[in-house]
Amino acid sequence: MLQLTAETTILLLRLALLGMLYLFVLLVVMSVRRDLRRAGAVAARSGAEARLPASARLVVLDPGRTSLESGARIPLQPITRLGRSDASTIVLDDSFVSGDHAHIVLRDGGWWLVDRGSTNGTMLNEQPVREEVGLASGDVIGLGQIQLQVSP
Amino acid sequence: MPIPFIEPKASAIADENRCMHAGEPVSVAASAARPAVRVPRLRPTELGLLLLALGILGLGLWQMDLARDGALAQRSVVALGAFGGAFLIMHAWLTIRRPFADQLVLPIAAAICALGQIVVARLIPELAVRQGMWVGVGAVALLGVVTVLPSIGWLRRYRYTFAALGVALVLSTFVLGVDPNGSGARLWLGAGGVYFQPSEVFKILLVIFFAAYLDEYRELLSYAGPRVGPLRLPPLPYLTPLLGMLALALLVVVLQRDLGAALLFFGVFLALLYAASGRALFVVLGVALFAVGATFLYQFFDHVQLRVDIWLDPWSRADTGGYQLVQGLTALAAGGIAGTGLTFGYPEYVPAAHTDFVIAAIGEELGLAGSLGVLALYVLLVHRGFHIALRTRDTFAALLAVGLTSVVGIQALVILGGTLKLMPLTGVTLPLLSYGGSSILANFILLGLLLSISHESEARLAAEH
């Protein structure tokens, strides 16, 4: 049998202690990773897109002819009215936009977009909005030339 | 020695148990109308990691005994057994009563506690038994919380009671407070050798109140409020009770010169406000307010001025006010990357090396490697806490989880930053690692609450799938 001196044993124990500490950390990280993957898989299965928080906002991608600035971030209100009229929450002074063009509302913990019978219609990701649709992070709302992106 | 390893197969089985498959339904706390849910029967991840944490403690104690006496001492075996027993009982109880609770929280806490035990046994062996007993008391408190607490919602219902209780506890130190260790602040209650620091429990009560209040007025905080140009200001009338409570808490701890607690309360408050409202403006306003308050304190309080001066230049005061900080930094430097090895350094020259300056002792004897390991453990614990919060549908429970996690994270930051001379030093314990009964006890209660939140939300998720 190999006889270890006390010094060698202590050195080995020191290294073992650090090794075990890092093994512990590694195993926890692996477990965390497994959890996150499973959570990701569950989210993908249930088809739940990136849910928007109750404090979502609109990012102006293209201001069209309005006085909005490109890149501006506008917080969403629980009932956000988009339109040309002064009563709108977000006033879009573009002749293409109807007085009361579209609404974005917070309901059941999610954000919904509804067209208010506008003359020229509302688009969501290049598709015309015919009935109330749920919004997800990254969706692009189009009113004529104006492009607004939904972001958390 | 054999290293316990988490078998992927065992975990996979546990994962399957979480989903509902065709098969015999195991008893569940859900109502009869709901579909039956398979309850995970074992917690293999938790068990494996707990044994590994025990291994860390065993290796540390063994190495110290070898260096001191040349052989493994009997008291170390007893300490290892008691420590292991306490955590395995918690593990068993969770398996029976809270099978859905997160499996990583307890082992991470055990690893941190194990390092705490090693440090105390290294520095002040006479206190090691006491620290072990406090871990036992903490274990009982954790079991009490997960067993007795009817539901997380129950905490919300009695939010004002908890707030009043917390204030009464802290106010009582003005009248009955004692200063058993000569720190210059009368923050403890008690007599006959057993002392208790109410601010440790107060922080949990405060988080419960903040979380409950913010949950009630969350929507208003997110949207209401007067407009000034493009900014929407916070709706002050709804914030008043909250700010009042915060002001009271800060006033009390500042009057008691417990600046670390003040910093902690304010940080947790901002974290919760941000989590509840999602508005960065609140954080900006809060930080501005903090700057104003800090400047005020600096101007009018000598001890605050001294703290800042020491932080900026401890070296010119190395033999007076800067002594502790300089000794701490020297210890960290002496440790190098792998450390001197337990018992081979001189951390006993650092004042309070077993409480506030515990990272200096670890840095000297376990080195940068050991300190970074400790840091990683806190990061993982905080990550796990936020993970629990994110998986919770109940907004109060989620906010509570965020608040409790922030307590651990911010407290660790405050003291680690102070010890490393990254910010002015304010005395708080390093959660679960520092010696100190009230701190250990409060943190185990906190862990019990986190585990309860996790169990409740995971059980609900499992019932839905």
Rounded mean pLDDT score of chain A = 83
The 3D shape of chain A can be described as rod-shaped
How would a crystallographer describe the biggest sheet of chain B?
2 strands, antiparallel
- Give the helix/strand class of chain A: alpha+beta
Strand content of chain A: 25-35%
Q: Which chains make the largest contact?
A: A-B, 32 and 50 residues
Provide a count of the helices of chain A: 1
N-to-C CA distance of chain A? 65 Å
Order of helices and strands of chain A: HEEEEEEEEEEE
Main sheet overview of chain A: 6 strands, antiparallel
Architecture overview:
The complex is a heterodimer of chains A (152) and B (465). Chain A has 152 residues and is an alpha+beta fold. Helices cover 26% and strands 29% of the residues of chain A. Chain A contains one helix and eleven strands; from the N terminus they run αβββββββββββ. Chain A has one helix at 6-45, and strands at residues 57-62, 73-75, 79-83, 90-91, 102-107, 110-115, 123-124, 127-128, 133-134, 140-143, 146-151. In chain A, strand 7 and strand 8 form a beta hairpin. The mean pLDDT of chain A is 83. Chain B is mainly α. Chain B has one domain. Helix content of chain B is 69%, strand content 2%. Chain B contains 18 helices and four strands. In chain B, the strands form two sheets. Chain B has a two-stranded antiparallel ribbon with strand order 1-2. Chain B has a two-stranded antiparallel ribbon with strand order 3-4. In chain B, strand 3 (227-228) and strand 4 (231-232) form a beta hairpin. In chain B, helix 8 packs parallel to helix 18 (437-464), helix 14 runs parallel beside helix 15 and helix 17 (395-419) runs antiparallel to helix 18 (437-464). The longest helix of chain B is centred in the last third of the chain and has 28 residues, at 437-464. The radius of gyration of chain B is 23 Å and the shape is globular. Chain B starts with 7 loop residues before the first helix and ends with a helix. The relative contact order of chain B is 0.13. The chains are: A alpha+beta (152), B mainly alpha (465). The interface between A and B is large, with 32 and 50 residues.
